[in-house]
Amino acid sequence: MTLLSVQGLSKSFGGVAAARDVSFLLERGELLAIIGPNGAGKSTVFNMVGGQLRPDHGAVLLDGQNITAASPQKRFRLGVGRTFQVAQTFLSMSVVENVQMALVSCNGESSALWAPARTRHREEALALLEQVGMADVADRPCSALAYGDVKRVELAIALAGQPKLLLMDEPTAGMAARERADLMDLTARIADAKSIGVLFTEHDMDVVFGHAERVIVLVRGRIIAAGSPEEIRQNEEVRRAYLGDEHALEKPKGLSPA
Amino acid sequence: MDLSFLAIQALNGLSSASSLFITACGLTLVFGVTRIVNFAHGSLYMIGAYTAATLVPRLLELHFGPVTFWAGILASAIIVGLIGVLIEVLLLRRIYGAPELFQLLATFGVVLVVQDLAILVFGPEDILGPRAPGLRAPVEILGRRFPSYELVLIAAGPIVLGLVWLLLRKTRFGVLVRAATQDREMIAALGVNQALLFTGTLFLGAFLAGLGGALQIPRVSAHAGMDLSIIAEAFVVTVVGGMGSVPGAFLAALIIGQLQAFGILIFPKSTLVVVFLLMAVVLAIRPYGFFGRPEAVGGTHAVGIASSKRSPYAGLIALAVIGTGLSLPLIGDAYMLKVATEILIFALFAFSLQLLIGVSGVVSFGHAAFFGLGAYGAALSLKWFALPMEAALPAGLLLAAAGALLIGGFVVRLSGIYLAMMTLAAAQIIYAVAFQWVDVTGGDNGIVGVWPSAWASGQVPFYLFTLALVTIAVLLLMRIINAPFGYALRAARDSEARAEAIGLTIRRHRWLAFTISGAAAGLAGGLYAFSRGSVDPSLLGIPTSVDALTMLLIGGIQTVTGPLVGAGFLHVLRDQIMPLTSLWRLLLGLIIIAIVLVFPRGLVGTVRGWGEERS
Amino acid sequence: MSTPPLLEIWNLTASYGRAQVLFGLTFGLHAGEVLALVGRNGAGKTTTLKAIMGLVPATAQKATFKGHSLGRLPTYRIARMGLGYVPEDRRIFTDLTVEENLEAGRKAASGGRSPWTPERLFKLFPNLAEMRGRRGNQMSGGEQQMLAIARTLMGNPDAILLDEPSEGIAPVIVQMMAEAIRAMKAEGVAVLLSEQNWAFAAGISDRAIVIERGEMRFHGTMAELMADEPLRAETLGV
Q1: Which CATH class is domain A1-70+201-244?
Q2: Using CB atoms within 10 A as the burial measure, which of B107, B299, B458, B575 is most buried?
């Protein structure tokens, strides 16, 4: 069965349509990128899949189950993990405690009042940190990490819920060039090994064309193209819309070199 | 109840709405631009009343007539406006970027300072102002006499609204104020000096507070205590209207004025309750009041407790502290034990608040509600059901927990400054009930004869009893803070988005935290009732809430042990200094302000910071 | 160019928290020129403009405007020196009318130029003239963009930092933006233009800086950049 089925999502804010009739599918183990110019509705679509926004029309199905109206918490329990554009971690805790917290929540122990939190699921948390290459800093405060490392911790947190679907909002924003490729390689490896479907938005075209298996292009809330990176690269409409020619003036003339 | 009576009541309602609006309008303007909820606004109102009551009679001696009277009122308001400028330049300017908890506390520090200064300057007596020349004779309305000055007040509200409207719409200053209310940063990028704009806004806000106070002098005498009673009502008006919205404040004042005027007919003893209930209902339906909008950039949160390596000596230190506590009866006299008992009780009270503020990031400004509920719960079950202390204490704890459960249900839906205001309002409702339901609670006099059971009476047994209960309660709370539940609260504080994304139900956790915290405060309150032998409404008042916050602040909100140290420090300080000076509140106010400005990490946090720097 | 630049920036760096976004930018902006700052989303264009305005914490070896240092000045002082800023998200005051928005931006002219007035601006942006009493929240994106530029011009700046003026607005209004920028240029106002819309930037700019991941990849004339097709393809995808 298809992992994620997005059907005819629409959403407007104060009369302005941010997403219009957006539909796509995502299979297990697949990396799917949503790209588009600023304000094209990427975040809107993303947040409707993640449960932060409720669509005006349309449906979101996870493994055939309708989750259109489910809260983010419910989606998490159904197997949706996510990372944020600006990495969201618990800065007052150590790295391993961040992951332990996610495991505690997974196991329904977050209201436990007695046995200390710092000993719970520690081994499992360390194993997850090992996967993202952060086990050696497990006991450092999360607030002391470099930003690229915080992003990795965030990935480990998201993986703690054993997600079927991973949502990554601009996973490489704010990272240095080398870190970007590393993080996405890591994501692809994990997605493949655990057959997790990954849906991500991204501005960095190197990341998109280097790691996505399929790409969806949104412009003004509408999908104008979908296909393999190569198809998207060749697509004239995409070149015009996304890469900047849409509002073409008359051909540049009267250039006055300084 | 005939038509003319209803008409008079409606007019009374309008006149109090006018007074309330004039004051609240200043508060909401200042909040809109500076994003600071200025507790000292009530103090400015009080200064306005005192100044006018002192100044206007002297002016009338020089030249008697309506012009002199109104000129005196205006002059008083201008003086208060200048005092507002002083407060802005000296204090507010330094805390615009501070967490909202610190802003509230710092401005409350000003309240304390002004309370003592007002007595120094104007004397301890109430000052009755002159009646307005030309408005002494009542007018007849539908066969009933109605004071003509009240009619002037009724007109004053809309006049002020109109003038403020003109100022905001038709002047450059007004355009900038409205622009700054929406986007402060952009205003700066256009070259506007925010500092000047803020100072100007503070002048306007303080002027309106002063005017509101000055206009009262023919009706009520200027007295100490005006500040807190008006500020509570002004908070309700601004919150219900939507913080920052002038028309919202006007509408809210109108509704509250009528509610008070007619509420008296329906619930003669519970007008305050009705007003605060209105606020609770409005916030439950519209979390940002009538015309308020969600905070785009809310106040920053104070940094709370973080994970730290467990000190290898922690166990030893705890044992040493408990040991010292146990051996105190051997070395201390009765007085010392009495002080120690109170310190223990307040340490528990402050510690219970730490669970909300330091752990959950929920800024409760009405924690006295649960302390007081615990105290009253114990006292009432002793008095009305003749329960012994062993049953009365748990009864108090249960009452506080129930209160926290109920209030928490409302509170956890809110955030930021609205949340703080809601907790404050809830505490004021309970205060009003205790104050006005005289038959049951004894009203202002409270309940006396709340003595412990025979085995626990006497300074030493009660001290040891308190030590045992407080130790157990604190250890339990620490356990909770270190348990997954405490971590979940911290998780939601650190990042709501992340907490939701890993499936935490934030509201439910905060609700439970609120209830546990209320129960612990209730235990402290119950113990306090038995230690003093009496309860009275002051246990539920704003100053009691602020006491707990001050202890937390002195100790440091990032540390688990901070509140315990803070409680001890404040109590000893008060004990040593209060007998020496009549200016205790002034000193306390300055201490609070100094901590906010200089030692925001508190005693324990600062000391720990030194240790970390060295290592 | 022999005259010293109006705005001079040496080695500008900036970070958001622990994420560094600018890695040492150095450039100058001369009176009456349009300098385009191009690069993909997230490259650091917006941050560059904000850093110059003092809106994000940043460090620079040297940052001067008209020969005066900008270091650690509060934003309003920088604006008063004659540096105008039109933010990416426009940030017009939506509760205020068009005329009130203009009033909020008004500052006296610093040089001998004839000051901008609402009437002059309404000639430049005829759409605004028809809605002077309308509130910002009842305007389209393009109209808001015009208002944001007009509001900044009311401060009679010597240089304007213009952040993505063509973003999300209709082609016909983009044309109008181009006209407006040419009009500013004709007045001797310098423009630092952050843009993603390549054709738009290429059409009106004299010189260009290409930034990628917070670093400068190119600094030269627009003609040179137009000629360097491989670089454009690599950094801009055009």
Answers
A1: alpha beta
A2: B107
